[in-house]
Amino acid sequence: MSESAKPRSRFPAALHQVAPSATARAGTLRPQRPLHEAADDARRHVAPTGLGLDGDAARVRMVMRLQQEGVRCEPVLQALRAVQRHGFVDTALAAQAYEDTSLPIGLGQTISKPSVVARMLEWLFLGESARARGHLGRVLEIGTGCGYQAALLAEVSSHVVSIERLRPLHDMAHQRLSALGTPRCRLLHGDGMLGSPSHGPFDSIISAAGGEELPEAWLDQLAVGGRLIAPALAAGGRHQVLVVVDRTAQGLRRTIGETVQFVPLKSGFT
Ligand code: SAH
């Protein structure tokens, strides 16, 4: 998916409203992997990535860059430190995993740029429920892709339902996340435009693919106090923008954000 061509926008509001320590739920975030485990992997002949043991240093540098660019939400930063992005891409691309770039994941799809992922998660943290709870609650993700963002979401929520329309990507993500042991994450193969009514309503909804409009099903499955973020065509139809929708007790409130470029949201599944 993805790519934001434009410089960082401050939309929708000052993200430092999310108080770093107040939002970190005790016990939610996985600690960094102990070095001795990395050494064990090395002894078991894990394929070399050119990153050093587990890419820990490269990942820390990536997170520092994101902080310098203005990402302030501590739970998001913690999740980005904890999840090994290089484990979600082809070994040949692992050395680029901590650059701020999208990378191909097969079938014409891409894993999003870390900065775009970080900003979208930060915006979700500014939703009413997320601010009150300090985590994203029940999350719906549309477009599992390689599973990287689903793994991040699992770090900062009570549970995640993630839907992918392309079977090979769903299967691969399922394998990866099972191997990592991500119990709070349920992957579904299907048309994400329909959401998942049986698992909803959701406190946070995030799409990694953009259509002409936001599907009604997503809005229907958004809980009161919940927030949705997704790319959609801007008025005039020439480019995509990020759209944030909040469901309040009075109804839906929509905010338009920065210009982005995500893969298309397609109906049906194969
Ligand atoms: N979050 C992913 C990004 C994947 S790219 C990651 O971390 O890798 C966006 C994904 O959305 C693609 O895999 C594409 O197949 C999927 N997609 C597009 N339309 C969809 C739909 N209607 N339902 C489910 N997935 C969809």
Q: Topology, pairings included?
A:
Blueprint: H1 20-23, H2 35-43, H3 56-68, H4 74-82, E1 103-106, E2 109-111, H5 114-125, H6 128-133, E3 138-142, H7 148-155, E4 159-164, H8 167-180, E5 185-189, E6 202-207, E7 209-210, H9 216-220, E8 222-233, E9 240-248, E10 251-260, E11 263-264
Parallel strand pairs: 3-4, 3-6, 4-5, 6-8, 7-11
Antiparallel strand pairs: 1-2, 8-9, 9-10
The structure holds S-adenosyl-L-homocysteine.
What is the 3D shape? globular
Q: In order across it, which strands form the biggest sheet?
A: 5-4-3-6-8-9-10
Tell me the strand percentage band.
15-25%
**What would you say the CATH architecture is?**
3-Layer(aba) Sandwich
- The CATH homologous superfamily is termed Vaccinia Virus protein VP39
| Strand count | 11
> Which CATH class is shown?
Alpha Beta
Overall average residue pLDDT: 85
* Whole-number tally of structural domains: 1
Please identify the structural class as seen in this structure: alpha/beta
Between the first and last Cα atoms, what is the distance in angstroms? 18 Å
**Topology as H/E string?**
HHHHEEHHEHEHEEEHEEEE
Which stretches are poorly predicted, pLDDT < 50 over at least 5 residues?
Answer: 1-46
Helical coverage, percent range: 25-40%
Largest sheet descriptor: 7 strands, mixed
